[in-house]
Design brief:
Elements: H1 8-19, H2 28-56, H3 70-75, H4 79-109, H5 116-124, H6 131-141, H7 150-162, E1 179-183, E2 186-189, E3 199-203, E4 228-234, E5 258-263, E6 266-272, E7 278-281, E8 289-292, H8 312-337, H9 341-349, H10 354-365, H11 367-382, H12 386-391, H13 403-412, H14 418-448
Helix pairs in contact: 2-14, 4-8, 4-11, 5-8, 8-11, 9-10, 11-14, 13-14
């Protein structure tokens, strides 16, 4: 028995009912009701600020007169803002590339080791630190004083391993001492020395706490036949007391002090003071003046000026890479885990070594993941602000300036110009949009596969 065809009125009713529903079957007014709060917030927090910034960028400093494109012209003519644009270009090229490369290296190298997970955890941990905290940490790391800054402590340690550093930068003789200034920071004996007669070279101006490690109590010089002997020591007794030009028990030798015997303007012999300050020169020094070269008294090597005008931007980029290399590593490691292992094994069977497998197989297969990481970091560094503001001292902030920092200074600084600040914000938006569009197109392409 054939079923009765549906009535025409029933079909029209169902069609109208479907037209009032969304793709998921939910009624459209209900969908709009749920989306309305989000749309209101989006308009209030995103759309309205963007529109107002675009409008404000065409007005003068007070906001009462139309300025046309003057604010945009100032962006590309003001030296300070041009420095920010140049530094932003450096950031966009260097920071994402280095962070992505390090993330790739860490992900590949730790894939087959037992402690790889622990290493990845350590590398990723800086992501849990805010930009503010990271800036404070690296401001201390880059301190010029090696006793406070970790970077310079390591650098000075390496430097002093290969090049001995001067130990007595403020040492000097007193007027009652047998030494006088000789020019170039050197000191020389007032009278020539004689073989068999001990020489005394006392100095002051060295804090006992600054004496080199291994310096021992000074010892009275002993005469030696046919040789010039002597003692170089710190003629200062902690707490007072002691006699000038005399070696007292509490006084220590100037370990490593260089001594030259000069005769007729020519150096005829050299020696270094032992830990107790004693030294011995050959018979050629008989009748010569003893000179303490200026190299004994130069300032010790204090490391690199990390936060100086030249290195401040690379130093801050280094702190950024420290934070974000872990982010890149985790994403790349996730992509690496999803690679078809049969392709890697086939390449090895065909005779490819590990470097060839990495370069010809692994990297091309990871290209989509690398693109995601690179684009994400590029968007992130375009608006970098916190690290530059905190790490760069006030004296070099103009040299480390970036667009986000200049936006803040132009909008809220001492001589604030909201029109220029708004123009900078619009420029940042225009710089971010192409990168975002590229990312969206790439994501859609990957979805269609």
């Amino acid at each position: 028995m054939a079923a009765a065809p549906p009535q025409k009125g029933t079909q029209q009713h169902r069609r109208k009912d479907r037209q009032g529903r969304s793709v998921t079957g939910t009624r459209k007014p209900l969908v709009a009701g749920f989306l309305l709060p989000a749309l209101v917030l989006l308009g209030a927090l995103v759309v309205y600020p963007i529109g107002y910034s675009v409008q404000r960028s065409f007005f003068d400093q007070p906001g009462t007169g139309f300025a046309g494109l003057d604010n945009y012209v100032e962006i590309f003519t003001d030296d300070t803002i041009l420095t920010a644009v140049r530094n932003n270009a450096i950031w966009v090229v260097v920071a994402p590339t280095v962070a992505t490369a390090l993330g790739l290296i860490f992900a590949v190298l730790t894939e087959r080791v037992r402690w790889g997970t622990a290493f990845k955890l350590l590398v990723f941990m800086p992501m849990a630190i805010s930009m503010l905290a990271a800036g404070i940490i690296f401001r201390l790391v880059y301190e010029q004083d090696p006793e406070r800054g970790v970077a310079n402590a390591v650098w000075v340690g390496v430097h002093d391993t290969f090049a001995e550093s001067a130990g007595y930068p403020k040492a000097r003789p007193l007027p009652v001492h047998p030494l006088e200034a000789a020019g170039g920071g050197a000191y020389i004996t007032k009278e020539p020395v004689r073989a068999g007669t001990p020489a005394r070279l006392p100095l002051v101006g060295v804090a006992p706490a600054r004496m080199p490690d291994g310096a021992e109590p000074a010892r009275e010089p002993q005469p030696a036949s046919g040789r010039v002997t002597g003692t170089a020591w710190l003629d200062f007794t902690k707490g007072g007391g002691g006699a000038a030009n005399a070696v007292d028990k509490a006084e220590r030798g100037l370990k490593g002090l260089e001594i030259e015997a000069v005769k007729d303007g020519r150096v005829v012999a050299r020696a270094k003071a032992a830990a107790d300050g004693t030294f011995t020169l050959p018979a050629a020094a008989d009748g010569a003046h003893l000179r303490l070269p200026g190299s004994n008294f130069r300032e010790p090597y204090s490391g690199v000026d990390w936060l100086g005008p030249t290195l401040v931007t690379p130093a801050i980029i280094g702190s950024y890479v420290w934070m974000w290399a872990g982010f890149a590593m985790v994403l790349i490691a996730a992509g690496l885990a999803g690679l078809p292992r049969e392709l890697l094994e086939a390449a090895r069977v065909d005779g490819a070594n590990e470097w060839q497998v990495f370069r010809r197989v692994t990297v091309p297969l990871l290209a989509p993941v690398l693109a995601v990481v690179l684009v994400t970091l590029m968007i992130n560094v375009l608006k970098i602000f916190d690290l530059v503001f905190i790490i760069a001292p006030g004296s070099v902030q103009d040299d480390a300036n970036v667009l986000a920092l200049q936006l803040y200074r132009s909008s809220f600084g001492t001589d604030a110009h909201p029109g220029v600040g708004s123009a900078i914000s619009v420029l940042l938006l225009l710089l971010v949009i192409p990168v975002m569009l590229f990312n969206i197109r790439r994501i859609r392409k990957e979805t269609r596969r």
